[in-house]
Design a protein that fits this description.
It contains one helix and 34 strands. The protein is an all-beta fold. The strands form ten sheets. It has a four-stranded antiparallel beta sheet with strand order 1-34-31-30, with no helix packed on it. A four-stranded antiparallel beta sheet has the order 2-3-4-5, with no helix packed on it.
């Protein structure tokens, strides 16, 4: 199995070792004001993790959830990052360890996680995190056990789950979708996509519809160009414009203009290459158009919309599957990319979270090594 699949999916399929003991010590660092346009080291996480999820809470803290950790194992640990003291501290453990799952901040201020992969296989379980107590509690399980899917908060407060894998090694890929109702704690099937896919992206548009783009339909399949729109009012899907480049493992960002920026990703036969291309989706016309390309081809990277309207793209893997420390900024006014400096560590399959201050927190992920390194470190980018 090729290197990237080993990192992103096969790493999650390796049988788990013993769970790591939880470290409840606060990892603290003195707070320093970074120079604008630079990356600086931040506090170390309590647990090294990749393919985790990170959610910004209403308090301004960041909840880092589960994922794949060192020693070929999955973790059920979660922790909180406090921007005030640049520190991580352990919070409640999930009931089920998981990686490649979905995580959504609900209107109730609780965080929903569902599905995912662990040493026992894939799961249909779902849990809720309550920031008031720091504890996780079980909620209704998915209709279809799945991992590597997307989760999107809908305008009415419900959560849409789309696609993903429902068999080991992704030999079965789902076109199905389902809805979580926070009021009842239950899941209900909704309309299925025209195309089964995982490693796609899902973005809530200003119209209230959800745009799903790209991905792949098999464990070693090619990328997809097709995109679809989900209408919560009717529970149905409609095909929309096709991207110029078939891609998976890409990023999608809703711009302040209402357009969607898709950048990078894995391309080619069995996704054996990476691309620097980027394109824009226009909701008014339903069409995609190529825009300026990044200076570096990358996949498995992270993207964040900044307060100034630019999009920060950082890390990932290049066309030779080497980890990247470089970062770039997309300017929608000029449709061009510029350098955003280099991260402290070359990393992919990490998370970026925009903090209330406008600074971006990058956490976890994997990096170069034999075997590959799962990072405990985090870093900050100041626009």
């Amino acid at each position: 199995m090729r290197k990237r699949m080993t990192i992103c999916l096969a790493l999650a399929l390796i049988t788990s070792g013993a769970a790591l003991a939880q470290d409840t010590n606060v990892r603290d660092n003195s707070v320093k004001s970074p120079r604008a346009g630079t990356w600086t080291s931040a506090g170390s996480m309590v647990t090294a993790r990749a393919n985790e999820r990170a959610v910004l809470l209403p308090s301004g803290k960041v909840l880092a959830i589960a994922g794949y950790t060192s020693g070929y194992s999955y973790t059920n640990h979660s922790e909180l990052y406090s921007p005030a003291n640049n520190a991580f501290i352990a919070t409640g453990d999930l009931n089920v360890a998981r990686s490649l799952f979905g995580a959504t901040l609900l209107r109730t201020r609780k965080v929903l996680v569902e599905g995912g992969l662990n040493s026992s296989g894939f799961t249909n379980t779902a849990e809720l995190y309550d920031p008031a107590t720091g504890q996780w509690s079980s909620t209704g399980g998915l209709v279809t056990a799945r991992y590597d899917h997307t989760a999107t908060l809908l305008p009415g407060g419900k959560v849409l789950i789309v696609g993903g894998c429902s068999q080991d090694d992704c030999y079965t890929v789902e076109a199905s979708a389902e809805i979580y109702d926070p009021n009842s704690g239950s899941w209900t099937p909704t309309g299925s996509m025209s195309i089964a896919r995982h490693r796609h992206t899902a973005i809530l548009l200003s119209s209230g519809k959800v745009l799903v783009a790209g991905g792949t339909s098999g464990p070693n399949g090619d990328g997809l160009t097709g995109s679809e729109l989900y209408d919560p009012r009717t529970g149905t899907w409609q095909m929309t414009g096709s991207m110029s480049v078939a891609r998976a493992y890409h990023t999608a960002t809703l711009l302040s203009t209402g357009q969607v920026l898709v950048a990078g990703g894995a391309i080619g036969a069995a996704l054996t290459n990476a691309t620097a291309t980027a394109e824009l989706y226009n909701p008014a016309s339903g069409a995609w158009a190529l825009t300026g390309s990044m200076s570096t081809a990358r996949e498995g990277h992270a993207a964040t919309l900044l307060a100034n309207g630019k999009t920060l793209v950082g890390g990932g893997l290049d066309a030779s599957f080497a980890y990247l420390s470089s970062a770039e900024l997309y300017n929608p006014s000029s449709a061009t990319w510029s350098s955003a400096g280099n991260m402290q560590n070359a990393r992919g399959y990490h998370r970026e979270t925009l903090l209330p201050s406008g600074t971006v927190l990058a956490t976890g992920g994997v990096g170069p090594g034999n075997p590959f390194v799962v990072y405990q470190s985090s870093e900050l980018y100041k626009p």
